[in-house]
Sequence to fold (551 residues):
Amino acid sequence: MTRNDGRDRTPSERVDVCVVGSGPAGALVARDLASAGYAVVVLEAGPRFDRGERLERMERAIRPAWGPEDVWEMGGERDAFSSTGPRYYPLNQARVKGVGGSTLHWQGMVMRLHEDDFRRRSVDGVGVDWPIAYDDLRPYYAAAESAMGVAGASDNPFAPPREEPFPLPAFEPSYSDALFAEACERLGVATHTVPNARNSEPNDDRSACVGYGTCKPVCPSGAKYSADYTAEAAEEAGARIIDRAPVQRLVPSRDGSTVEAAVYATPDGREHRQEARQFVVAAGGVETPRLLLLSEDTDRGHPDGLANSSGWVGRGFMDHLFVGTGGRLDRRTRQNHIGFLTSESHAFYDEPGRATEGTGGAIPGSDADLGPIKLEFLNYAGPSPVEVAMDAGEFGDDLLERLRADYGTHIAMGGLVGQLPRKENRVTLDPSRTDDHGNPVPDVQWALDDRTERTIERALDIQTRILRELGATVEVTIGHDTTGPAYHQMGATRMHVDPSKGVVDGRLRTHDISNLSLVGSSVFATSGAMNPTLTIAALALKCASHLDEDL
Fold:
């Protein structure tokens, strides 16, 4: 995109709502409020991506000459960051800046949090309770599933209660899912389908999934939901979206009780002020707290950053930890035919220490203090034939021999484990480094707590027993020493009933600023072990409902 692309990026006259960010949270808020007749402006830091270029982006994802940040043009001075904590956090592999946000490259799994996830302190005596319960989000979960076109089935015996069917039928279990199901049945481990935000049949003027297999980082067919579709619906309802307009700071009123304007930069090097009655920050798990910290204003009562009288802006940062076990079978497993999950198990979610009974031998229980565990049965273990061919130096018969040796018998499980919110895990500013506008970059300081490490070991043990029951030779384990984030940034502007212990209340409004709401996973009080996007969407719809009442 050229520097002068002809787009009008000057501010609108004072609008009803200014939204910062156009990922699923910001796009859904904008869509609902614009549909209700309010004047809405969305400020997005990144560009508009041309859907016609998605095949080219898929090729970037496959060819070894390109890296993961190249597919959606992340990196460089604009996206500079620091990670000075005990564990390195690879931030730019986890986000996309642009209309649609990180749903442009997500895998598309959408589960509801369990009821106990909202009351972790009450149930386990650790973490904190959310100021809302599952039942408060229940209607918004249903609306979010409708908005995203979720394909699923009501076959999960551990799922929280629901009243309505999924909008689309579930995807059938894969071939390797059937192999896992037999082993799990012998061990007494229930398996079930995975809700996916992708079309199992044509829906919303988009095709059904056609099996490209590159779901993460790009879906060329458009079968997978991404928030640029919702952003488009918001524009059709009357919202205005200004791309390549990174917000530099929020300006508080003289008495510090409200926000007057969002100051944003444009590609021509100018800064503008967008004024509004209400402001919604939906800039992701790292950029949302960063913006509040960049907006510090001592003269107007916010010396430590906007909405930070509690000191919790940036603190309580969490991610899910990926746990994995892989190996080989002595028969074909048909991996890489599908680029997403079709089966999983929540059998150890609410009772991670429980024992199972089965004809193949029970999985022993554990009395340790553990967090929730979500088990995943992977459909993309080992390299794909295309990846082998791209990386190989051989041709002809030699290449064919390599393909036969490297592809076809891999099998693997994955899983997610959540963290507890700790003040030491945080997003702060690094004044020693600046971005392309001279602002301090975010510094992600991240480490694991003992409970998380114990839960990782428990998940590894369960996975290893299932693979061995399957008859696999276990070759790879991803555990405490090798685990990394699942790229689900949560908790750095957490929700809490007490203004001294959190940043937003149950209505997603900041305790300190009466016209500033925050939406996204940064408001999560605890992490659970579910992929967070459906909860992000449900919270966004809840926030839009409250703002409609206020306006």
User: Anything to note?
Assistant: The chain has a mean pLDDT of 94. The first strand starts at residue 15 and ends at 20. The CA atoms of residues 325 and 477 lie 4 Å apart.
